[in-house]
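Before the break, one more example. Copy the sequence into your notebook; we will annotate it together after we see the structure.
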Amino acid sequence: MFIGHYGIAFALKKYAPKTSLGFLFIAVQLADIAFFTLLLLGIEHARIIPGFTEASPLDLYDFPISHSLLGSLAWTVATYLVVRLIPLKNSNNAPYRQRTALILSVGVFSHFVLDVLVHTPDLLLVPGLDIRIGLGLWNSIIATVAVELAILVIGCCIYLRSSPSGVGPAGKYGIYAFLAVLLVIIVITPFMTFPDTLAVAIQGILVYAVLTLTAWWLDSKRHAALGQV
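Here is what the structure looks like once it is written out:
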């Protein structure tokens, strides 16, 4: 799953209104950011096999650090601890810090849960034990696109209903334009081709960066009066 993860970020914003949508975008894609980085470093591995599944040509045969159940739990706990320790606005408010850490941690672990739906059985439970899970939704383009669209639209509706309308064109209408772009990306992603995994990693990191910065900026236009972390 790719863009569908952001539906969780949009929905979680309701429960952490002072936390930037940009941070939530990072949280829900932290596993993929880690994977692409480790792929570039040669620590984790994947290969491109045209037609491997209908929706993705990637054979993700070695990514235990970023995407195993144990690895995902480790990223989740690490996120919680880091957010509790770093100085934030209202940092002397313990319940606020705990809530922020919890919401971001939920976002991090949601990545593994949604990936179980779409991946072929390539998600290890524990590194070193060859027990893998995955329901294989990627074997159907229609099912993949439908599920990602549903998660994104529902999440964005929750976000829009729970956030102020904002001021100016960016505050009032920017998020709708952003949603339209995300919907287009969902539809075209299964038909994209890549020359090699290096291109996949570089493009993935760049796209995540652009989408995160856009989410942060548009969200700030809607929540300027609240003050965000």
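Residues 5-221 form one domain. The first strand starts at residue 45 and ends at 48. Try to locate both features in your own notes.
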